[in-house]
Design goal:
By secondary structure, the chain is α+β, with helices and mostly antiparallel strands. The protein is built from 15 helices and six strands. It has helices at 17-29, 40-50, 69-79, 90-106, 108-116, 119-130, 140-157, 166-184, 197-208, 214-223, 225-235, 256-278, 299-313, 317-326, 329-336, and strands at residues 8-12, 33-37, 57-60, 65-67, 283-288, 291-296. The longest helix is centred in the C-terminal third of the chain and has 23 residues, at 256-278. The chain binds glutathione (GSH).
Length: 373
């Protein structure tokens, strides 16, 4: 199918984790787009079409809509395959998707912590985000206060970061920097000579939060200059910069620290989140990185695990055994389980062509009070 006539308007923000991820992907594909900074009215407009209050959301000139960066990448990989981002080798592609999901979801908490727990960064970023509320008749200090209270309350404190988990939260960022730094000493992108899903997953936090917010950016520049350079390489990406290079076709051994964290920490957490969801509990609690975490159950991440399971189930025996060989047995076993009895219906198939859905949900796919109708 040709997408030439369609133009893309990204409702998003210069401060946003997932908007940065999507922009880098569109730049890599050579897909032209415009960004419109979100505000209360534009979010209502988006939610009327997609049922979701989150950014980014893509309004296509043919009247269709795209949401969820993981699905948007998958959508364009099928619609406009060249230059290809997704590895052709099935086991390598699975690991790329697994790392993308891990980076998207597990680095969100440290990214929010570094932005909202340190006053210098929180002051700056609440000012930036305050601009998005300009259409509301309130003074700037009120907009700034709103963001500081909302973001720190929802995404830091209520998401399990306190005095006991503070160091473990920061250790996640620091160990990821170390793992990526040693990879970028050997090659330009996470899995090989050109970017794949895993690069865009890591880019979400590494660009807009860790690479730009003053507190974590200072750490990145000092501790991991190779990661800092990769952030710029990813932002300056264009088809001509990688299209002639080979697609990654093997799982390099230096991915072991990242895949170890996926197996030992992330997949176990995903399983706990799923069990709590199925039991209709509001909270998930688990031990990881030497501490106990308590956080809200996230329906969206039940869907993430389900999606990874479906991808693994679609592999042939040879590809599955190559994936099993790079994961710890317990992590692989979680992925190899059958689908859960109940999986939330998260995003309708892309592109979204019909207006509205049953209920408006937030970015963790929880029903939103005061839904837009
Ligand atoms: N899985 C979604 C996540 C999108 C998301 O969580 N975006 C954040 C901003 S970067 C958001 O809109 N959060 C909603 C909120 O703050 O309520 C994606 O990949 O696009």
């Amino acid at each position: 199918m040709s997408g030439e006539a369609v133009s893309y308007l990204v409702h998003g923000a210069d401060e946003s984790y997932y908007t940065g991820k999507l922009e880098a992907y569109l730049r890599a594909k050579g897909i032209a787009y415009d960004v419109r900074p979100f505000g209360p009215a534009s979010m209502r407009h988006c939610a009327r079409h997609t049922g979701v209050v989150q950014i980014p959301q893509v309004e296509c000139s043919d009247g269709t809509w795209l949401v969820d960066t993981t699905l948007i990448i998958d959508y364009f990989e099928r619609r406009q395959p060249e230059p290809r981002i997704s590895p052709a080798d099935p086991a390598t592609r699975f690991v790329s998707l697994l790392l993308e999901d891990y980076a998207d979801e597990w680095l969100w908490r440290p990214a929010m912590h570094y932005r909202w727990s340190y006053p210098e960064t929180a002051r700056l970023m609440s000012g930036w985000l305050g601009q998005h509320l300009a259409e509301l008749p309130l003074p700037m200090f009120a907009h700034k206060l709103y963001w500081r209270v909302r973001q720190r309350g929802t995404f830091v404190r209520r998401d399990g970061v306190d005095g006991r988990t503070w160091n473990a939260t920061e250790a996640t960022y620091l160990s990821t920097l170390d793992a990526l730094e040693s990879i970028f000493r050997r090659r330009p992108f996470v899995m090989g000579e050109r970017p794949c899903e895993a690069d865009f997953g890591f880019f979400a936090s590494m660009f807009r939060h860790f690479g730009c917010d003053p507190t974590p950016a200072r750490i990145m520049r000092k501790r991991a200059p190779g990661v800092y350079e990769w952030v710029a390489r990813m932002w300056n990406i264009a088809p001509s910069r990688f299209a002639e290079r080979p697609l990654p076709a093997s799982i390099e051994t230096d991915l072991a620290p990242l895949l170890g964290a996926v197996s030992q920490v992330y997949l176990r957490y995903l399983e706990v989140n799923e069990t709590a969801y199925l039991a209709e509990r509001q909270q998930a609690s688990y031990f990881a990185l030497g501490v106990e975490w308590k956080e809200p159950v996230k329906p969206y991440r039940v869907w993430c695990l389900d999606r990874l399971r479906s991808e693994l189930a679609a592999l042939d025996a040879e590809a599955r055994s190559r994936v099993a060989a790079v994961l710890e047995p317990t992590g692989f076993a979680i992925l190899a389980k059958p689908r859960a009895a109940r999986v939330p219906e998260v995003v309708r198939e892309l592109p979204i062509t019909e207006r509205g859905r049953r209920a408006v949900v937030d970015s963790w796919w929880r029903p939103r009070a005061g839904a837009v109708r």
